Amino acid sequence: MKTLLAAVAALGLATPVLAALPVGANAPDFATQASLAGKPFAFRLSQALRKGPVVLYFFPAAFTSGCTVEAHEFAEATDAFNKLGATVIGISADDIATLNKFSVSECRNKFAVASASPAVIKAYDVKLPVIAKSNRTSFVIAPDGKIIYAYSALGPAGHVSGTMEAVKAWAAAHPKR
Fold first, then answer.
1. Distances in Å between the alpha carbon of 3 and those of 22, 162, 163, 173, 174?
2. Helical axes 159-173 vs 2-10, angle rounded to 10°
3. pTM for this structure?
4. pLDDT class of 177 with cuts at 50, 70, 90
5. Is the pLDDT of residue 176 over 80?
6. Higher pLDDT, 177 or 39
7. What CATH number does residue 115 fall under?
8. pLDDT tens for residues 55-104?
9. Which residue in 23, 19, 20 sits closest to 10, CA to CA?
10. Residue numbers annotated as active site
11. Number of structural domains, the chain?
């Protein structure tokens, strides 16, 4: 694992100062309602990690301009993430009814979005000051539950490219998975 973390850091993918949980931390497990193609389902992080790495990206609110751009970018990249064995899931404080619509129109039926409880937002330390929404932070979590990449930025730029590079580095280090 230390070798992988060193490789990610060498690629310039080190965690920015604003990222909540640092690279190497254990990702808190959680269960919540999620939606894919407008259909709700139960999501549990530990179950998703059994299939491979998880790109877990927190976003402030569905149907806002930055979150819509970010969803479109992740939708375009989802097939490439899947080929590398990774699962993409967006997560926000929105209710499941809103996320059902967002998963169809903005996620383009490509990846799931989930509803983050205040406890999940707190566990990942991604709460926006004053309001009960998350900031924009993307994590890549290895199947062992360790965070191998974290990136926080107000705008959507860099979230897809950074997570993709981290997943590629992980896949290169685990070619026989």
1. 16, 19, 18, 9, 12
2. 140
3. 0.88
4. low
5. no
6. 39
7. 3.40.30.10
8. 999 999 999 999 999 999 999 999 999 999 999 999 999 999 999 999 99
9. 23
10. 67
11. 1
Print the SS3 string covering the chain. CHHHHHHHHHCCCCCCCCCCCCCCCECCCCEEEEEECCEEEEEEHHHHHCCCCEEEEECCCCCCHHHHHHHHHHHHHHHHHHHCCCEEEEEECCCHHHHHHHHHHCCCCCCEEEECCHHHHHHCCCECCCCCCECCEEEEECCCCEEEEEEECCCCCCHHHHHHHHHHHHHHHCCCC
Query: Six-digit token pair at 103?
Result: 């998963």
Give Cα separations from 48 to 13, 45, 53, 87, 106 (angstroms): 23, 5, 8, 7, 22
Domain that holds residue 126: 2-173
Q: Exposed, middle or buried: residue 8 (CB in 10 Å: 0-12, 13-18, 19+)? A: buried
Express each pLDDT in 4-63 by its tens digit: 333 433 344 443 435 479 999 999 999 999 999 999 999 999 999 999 999 999 999 999
d(CA 123, CA 110): 27
